[in-house]
Amino acid sequence: MTIYRKQLAEIPLSILDLSPISEGKTAADAFHNSLDLAQHGDDWGFQRYWVAEHHNTPSVGSSATSVLIGYIAGGTKRIRVGSGGIMLPNHAPLMIAEQFGTLESLYPGRIDLGLGRAPGTDQITARALRRDRNGGQSFPDLLAELMAYFQPAEGDPVRAIPGEGMEIPIWLLGSSDFSARLAGELGLPFAFAGHFSPDFILPALEIYRHHFRPSTVLEQPYAMVGVNVIAADHDDEAQYLATSLYQSFLQLVRRTPKPIQPPVKNLDALWDSFERDAVERSLSSTIIGGPETVQQKLQALLDATQADEIMINTSTYEHTDRIHSYEIVKKIWR
Asked: How far apart are CA 305 and CA 300, in angstroms?
């Protein structure tokens, strides 16, 4: 039996943004850069632009995720804008329904609500967010409560205004099998965080597709895979730029987070063998190189995953290098 091979040009590509803060820059700089990237993505035909909720992380500016979504949606015209994701156990479902109801009211037909169950931070900060220690386990109940607020609710004692009656696409995000199974059982689209959990990409997608049940939202499973991509004009240049990303993950291993650091010529001067192995394992799916290398590796990812959409995260020290990386991907794709 012949299996149809998807081509990169046949699927949507999207952008994941953590609104990175580089050493010597401010959060305001990061937000302006995010809008600039979103506007380029809008012009270049990318499908959606998601920002991710993280807290107490010096290199990430997207902690007030809903506020940033509004800023980006207000400065773009076509591209879908949403969360990749909102960490639901950090919030009251009613508040998320109201926030995204507001966004959908302002930018109708362009808002996505991607939801995760992790805290998006360390445990001390999670407690500062007043997050229940069992928040991850209660995620299905929180999700059901949130989804109920979007249903017509006249006569109910608590209503999401705005929010009720709105058809805002809900995605489940995950880096393991929990959300994959739940998304399948509920018939929701699923996005896998392959940019930091590469070992579980294929098992999670298999679980999602196996457990998928048609719903009013989807008749067939729809899976998006996230991946880090750093593209430059030449392989060596891309490898050099990628050392900023490697330093960020090294800081996570050491629990010494910093803003995005400038690239370096020799990473071996910064880490020991244990740290190198830990970082390289976390970033094993990262695609780094010139146009030809990136095209081959993106197609290989698509061949392996049969993803319906790929979401690209690019983290570089200089904003101009990030823009150029996405421009290269756009040319490969189109």
From this structure: 9
| 3-state SS assignment for residue 254 | helix
Dump pLDDT digits (tens) for 128-167: 666 555 656 789 999 999 999 999 866 788 888 999 999 9
Q: Distance between the two ends of the chain, CA-based, in angstroms?
A: 30
- Cα angle 116-159-110, degrees, rounded to a multiple of 5: 50
Rounded distance between C-alpha atoms, residue 102 and residue 108, angstroms: 10
pLDDT tens for residues 186-200?
999 999 988 878 888
Residue 263: both structure tokens together? 């690239």
* Segment (H or E) for 106: helix 93-106
Backbone angles phi, psi at 18, to 5 degrees: -100, 15
The sign one gets for the Cα dihedral 269, 274, 275, 277 is: positive
What does the alpha-carbon distance between residue 261 and residue 134 come to, in Å, rounded to a whole number? 35
Location of structure tokens 């009211």: 105
Beta bridge partners of 252: none
Summarised one tens digit per residue, pLDDT across range 22-75 is 999 999 999 999 999 999 999 999 999 999 998 888 999 999 999 999 999 999
CA atoms within 13 A on the CB side of 249: 23
pTM score, two decimals? 0.92
Q: How far is CA 87 from the centre of its chain?
A: 12
CA 187 to chain centre: 20
Please state, in angstroms and rounded to a whole number, the distance separating the CA atoms of residues 324 and 132: 42
- Exposure string of 298-318, with b = 16+ CB inside 10 Å and e = fewer, is bbebbeebbbbbbbbbbbbbe
Contact between 233 and 329 under an 8 Å Cβ cutoff? The reply is no
Give the CA count within 13 Å in the CB-facing half-sphere of 60.
Answer: 23
